[in-house]
Amino acid sequence: MANNGNNALLEVKGLKKYFPINQGILIQRKVADVKAVDGLDFTVERGETLGLVGESGCGKSTTGRTILQLYRPTAGDVYFKGNDLAKLKGEELRKMRRHMQMIFQDPYASLNPRMTVGDIIGEPLEVHNISKGKEKKERVQELLQIVGLNPYFINRYPHEFSGGQRQRIGVARALAVQPDFIVCDEPISALDVSIQAQIINLLEELQEKFNLTYLFIAHDLSVVRHISDRVAVMYLGKIVELTDRTSLYSNPLHPYTKALLSAVPIPDPIVEEKRERIILVGDVPSPVNPPSGCRFHTRCPLAIDICSRVDPEFRDVGGKHFVACHVV
Fold first, then answer.
1. 60 with 184, same domain?
2. Residue 9 belongs to what H/E stretch?
């Protein structure tokens, strides 16, 4: 929906992911749904980085996993290189997985502690019948070098590495099958601030070198500004604003985006003093029972009568700046 150029590598249409809530001990019956992702439309162009931001629990990680079919969507389509992933099964889907990879949030939980680094990075090569034996070992050593680690660490275990080094191993594993598209699910949020910049720079270098396309999920807006070409802002299962990074930071239109940006500290004390901080009232509503109309109306300082009744259309307000708001 965002920009239907022919250069789109990934196209998401009406994507929904609901998790059922069951009750009962002997006979389980569904009593409600957690509406984690509730109708997303966007494209990701070849070679670009689309940042996906929002507060915890808004459905960012679920979106990434649903796109890769780690969760099967409840409704909607995910077109990757023209194939609808939501309709693929078995061997067909397995062949497509080669072209899509994921870098996980927690470098401690995403690496198997019983496997050596060589086995962890080499596993995708065996799964997809790319290389075995000596050839596999050489490829693993090459990948370690690419991500800035010593190639002779191949026989070490994850516990022998720091958080930043583990995340580099995770990046090497994602690169092993030479994918086109990588979902980076908050890849730096578990790391020290000093290490975060190194991993961001590594991701940018790899993107340039291998012409990679990223969906970069984060809740830190300053990081997203640095790495992304375009940014989508998510609130309670829906995208409320989507535009290029310059427009988003210089001219945010949605009240929620304005509130998020007002929380980002500015290093200039004079500017910081004059700036108005937008404090949102109340808590994020439950995705089990989201508000009617616009999801944000219960906390929005600009809400009018129509906001509580009608779900705003996600529309282009000019210059490929998409926003879902009645007031804009």
1. yes
2. strand 8-23
Q: Cα–Cα distance between 163 and 169 in angstroms, integer?
A: 10
- The pLDDT mean for the chain works out to 92
Of 246, 255, 118, 103, nearest to 183 by C-alpha is 103
pLDDT tens digits, one per residue of 260-287: 998 887 777 887 777 778 888 888 899 9
Q: Whose structure tokens read 């700046």?
A: 321
Say yes or no: 157 and 15 in one domain: no
Q: Is residue 201 part of a domain?
A: no
**Containing domain of residue 82, as a range?**
8-23+31-99+179-194+207-323
Instruction: Tell whether pTM > 0.85.
Output: yes
**Pair 77, 189 in one domain:** yes
What is the 3 state secondary structure string of 298-326?
Answer: CCCCCCCHHHHCCCCCCEECCCCCEECCC
- Asked whether residue 1 carries a pLDDT value surpassing 50, the answer given is no
Q: Are residues 268 and 255 in the same domain?
A: yes
